[in-house]
Amino acid sequence: MNKFKKIVLGIKLLVEKPSLINLIVGSDYYWHQLLSKKYPKKTQLSTINIEELIPDFNENLTTYSFLGGGSIPTDIMLLKALCKQIANCSYFEIGTWRGESVINVAEVAKECYTLNLSNEEIIALGLPQKYADLHGFYSKGKNNIKHLLGDSMFYDFKKLNKKFDVIFIDGNHSYTYVKNDTEKVFKHLLKENTVVIWHDYAYNPEEIRPEVLLGILDGVPEKEKTNLYHVSNTLCAIYIGRKLKNSVLDFPLKPTKKFVINASIKNL
Prior knowledge:
By secondary structure, the protein is α/β, with parallel strands linked by helices. 32% of the residues lie in helices and 17% in strands.
């Protein structure tokens, strides 16, 4: 099919089903175009070696499901290792899902807060009760984890009247929510030396999600944009108040390290 016929067919499909425009607006191409136009020098974050953040990296996870929709092991190890570096660490996350990240962090942090949609809000989105019930599956009942309920778009972060050492933004990954969550976190929850991590900045450790990156850049205060990085071998972006050795991602990457992973199974 030649280009002209494709254009005609595309117009015909849009006329018959206008909602298909959402596929175009939601495409990576669309977000890459917006990102390149607004931040021509920031189409990706500079990457820092995970060992720059965590020297002598040696972490283990006591809870991991190897099921869909969660973080990859190095994402959670990053969170746990960062919290371990801070005495009496106070941790906050947006987006709980099964609770794999926070249950691991709770082993080394003094206190953990999570914010997630209530069961009623999840059901209202058309998702099944079973899906709603799985939120916080691993983390419920842990003494140093407080589960907060609400939609981050409308939640009053100020009423927490609290600052945190490590914050993990892993809720709705649409541009609108990433920008909203980022703005509120920086306005209400940061103290000196707070570290902020965004999940799903990347589809995989070598391929960014332009929609998420644009939400981050538009949500972070202008003066702090130079303190943003991508953490190697993870799906995460990070805000940290110090300069670190970094490089520009050049796909495909030649491995410079290997991870040694041991796993055992404990039936529930």
